[in-house]
Here is the input.
Amino acid sequence: MGIDSPGGAGAIVLNALLSGIGEPRDVHEIPNPKIIESSSARTEAWATGQLDATVIHDTQYDAAHSTVNRPVLIATLYENAPGFIKVAQAAEADWLVQNRELAAQYCATTLRAMKELKSDFAVFRAAVGEYVEEPPSEQSLRELYDLIQKYPFWTADGGLSDESVEFMIDIATESGVLTGPMNAADVVDRETLRRAVELANTPSTG
Here is the structure.
């Protein structure tokens, strides 16, 4: 099994997937793990028969599966761990108190961008081509775009439900990233999030 170091992104994802399918064991209990820090290196190792299983991105699976003997996609975050939070904006609490409107504007920009990108495949493809150094294939882009339409990856309300935050706290604790207790209510600045959603839904005057 190819995985990165404990606490790495791949290990956290695998713990989330294991929890999502009801498996009580975690990444620390995988027999004979092979530590490969880069997902691209894990993909290459899997594609060349050096690994029986690994944790990689969907687009990496798409690119490599044709070279693998009877490849099987075992689990995905969107199907098996829907509470997983891949990316969130973060800042220190004291800074937020002094800069809440700025933070809300920044987050609102992200919400508007997500809405725009998911509204049209051509816009989505053009943005990926401009900002991603090595864009995936057209087929992979279309598959990603379709998944964005089907699953709540990019939500109008910014996501970050208490249930999702609690799930991530549990996974981070299992993975050794968190070493002390944490409450979901203390993690998300609901006031800033509400203001960001309000700004994102305000018609532009420019």
